[in-house]
Design a protein that fits this description.
Layout lengths: L1 E5 L6 H12 L3 E3 H11 L2 H12 L5 H12 L8 E4 L5 H13 L6 E6 L2 H9 L1 E3 L6 E3 L24 H15 L1 H8 L3 E5 L4 H17 L1
Parallel strand pairs: 1-3, 1-4, 2-3, 4-7
Antiparallel strand pairs: 5-6
Bound molecules: adenosine monophosphate (AMP).
């Protein structure tokens, strides 16, 4: 099954994509995570992407697409994947569609997590991140930071989770990414999910809606 996750930053795409992928035995492919790995390793791609990622803007399509096609061509993605963070604008969506059609493949679903804007701001500015394994944790202003439960490394805030950058990322989302909701609705594959609920409830409703597809 080939799935993509759409939704604003902070909607829970990464968390839900991870769970879904684990449950279905498919790889979770996050373009944000891939960029962060390249940044950390200071690869050529990392150096080229750095200023865009850190300022909350989109990395140019050509760089992003080359990275995604390379990842999707790997063996573990042959039967399907949960793609999180791509496509991020209409040009990427159209190029992706051309690629899929050329390979006689189709996308099964675009899972759209809808979340209210004030909730997004709260989640993003309270998000702490493990620089080692990339796990994320929700913290409040009263008890920030701490250590990663998986690897014990001290948690940090992502450069792009600071309030000014978060506002820019949300603006970029509404201007560039939100039109994808209509794009996939028109193609008849949009699955709209209320993402305001707690993580487990959202995961359950995604699972139920996908199961309905399968029983048809
Ligand atoms: P994320 O973790 O999905 O919020 O992504 C972090 C950052 O990576 C974004 O703010 C962009 O700078 C970059 N990025 C991730 N996916 C894409 C994409 N499909 N196109 C362009 N830039 C992207």
């Amino acid at each position: 099954m080939r799935l993509i996750m759409i939704g604003p930053p902070g909607a829970g795409k990464g968390t839900q994509a991870e769970r879904l992928a684990a449950r279905m035995g498919m790889p979770h492919i996050s373009t944000g995570d891939l960029f962060r790995i390249h940044l950390k390793a200071s690869t050529e791609l990392g150096r080229q992407a750095k200023r865009y990622v850190e300022s909350g803007g989109l990395v140019p399509d050509a760089l992003t697409e080359a990275m995604v096609w390379e990842r999707l061509s790997q063996e573990d993605a042959r039967e399907g994947y949960v793609l999180d963070g791509f496509p991020r604008n209409l040009a990427q969506a159209e190029e992706f569609q051309r690629r899929l059609e050329a390979a006689r493949m189709g996308l099964d679903r675009a899972v759209y997590l809808r979340v209210a804007e004030n909730e997004l701001m709260r989640r993003l500015t309270g998000r702490w991140w493990c620089p080692e394994c990339q796990a994320t944790y929700q913290r409040t202003a009263a008890s920030p930071g701490g250590a990663c439960e998986a690897c014990g490394v001290v948690l940090i805030q992502r450069e792009d989770d600071r309030p000014a950058t978060v506002r820019r990322r949300l603006r970029v989302y509404f201007e560039e990414t939100a039109p994808l909701v209509g794009y996939y609705r028109d193609r008849g594959i949009l699955l709209e999910i209320d993402g305001n609920a707690p993580v487990d409830a959202v995961a359950r409703s995604i699972g139920e809606r996908l199961a309905e597809d399968e029983s048809r």
